[in-house]
Amino acid sequence: MVILGPPGAGKGTQAARICERLGIPAISTGDIFRANVAGGTELGRQAKQYMDAGEYVPDSVTNAMVADRLSAADAADGFLLDGYPRTEAQVHELDSMLAAADLSLDVVLEITADAEVVVQRLLGRAAEQGRADDTEPVIRRRLEVYAEQTEPLATLYEQRGLLVRVDGVGALDEVTDRIMAALATRGVTA
């Protein structure tokens, strides 16, 4: 499963809830990047330059990281990718990774949210968590980058018959219930 949606739509929160219910790992490139930044690794230093500017980390770094993570034993029975793929090139790279492992996606979940709601959520999160990458100019740039590069993936996956859209605005439990009901229509159940 892949989860799509603009920054601040609730992907990380809902991914954790979905994965808990389905018993699969959430594979978040954002978490992997932040762990490397905090650990001061070479990958972290490279990723930080892009993240601080509100840009995406280059495909070469991201693809290698995802391929390595998908080969882990806990992903053998399913997984949820959060933050990958973000570009059409990454979609094709993921297709290749999955084909090499004789796997395919079951569903692509898109969580939708109004841009102004997202900006306010992320500014609130920045205040609560002290996240330096969540300033208003960076948030707005991340939304622009999402619209340019990632939003078109929803159309691509819709054409493949894999896309399910769910409104991400509302109480956490309400959104989770909407998601689980939408996934059940695609045969993805706990």
From TrEMBL:
Protein residues bound to ATP: 8-13, 125, 170
Question: What are the subcellular locations of this protein?
Answer: Cytoplasm
Recorded hits in Pfam families, A to Z, give: ADK
Q: Name the principal localization, coarsely classed.
A: cytoplasm
Q: Give me the residues that bind AMP, please.
A: 29, 34, 55-57, 83-86, 90, 131, 142
Which catalysed reactions does the entry list for this protein?
A: AMP + ATP = 2 ADP
CDD domains attached to this UniProt entry: ADK
**Known EC number:** 2.7.4.3
Which pathway does the database say it acts in?
A: Purine metabolism; AMP biosynthesis via salvage pathway; AMP from ADP: step 1/1
| GO terms assigned for molecular function | kinase activity
List, alphabetically, the PROSITE patterns matched: ADENYLATE_KINASE (PS00113)
Return the similarity comment. Answer: Belongs to the adenylate kinase family.
For this protein, the record's PANTHER family field holds: NUCLEOTIDE KINASE
Q: Share the domain note from the entry.
A: Consists of three domains, a large central CORE domain and two small peripheral domains, NMPbind and LID, which undergo movements during catalysis. The LID domain closes over the site of phosphoryl transfer upon ATP binding. Assembling and dissambling the active center during each catalytic cycle provides an effective means to prevent ATP hydrolysis.
Q: What does this protein do?
A: Catalyzes the reversible transfer of the terminal phosphate group between ATP and AMP. Plays an important role in cellular energy homeostasis and in adenine nucleotide metabolism.
Q: Tell me the protein's name.
A: Adenylate kinase
Provide the species name: Actinomyces ruminis
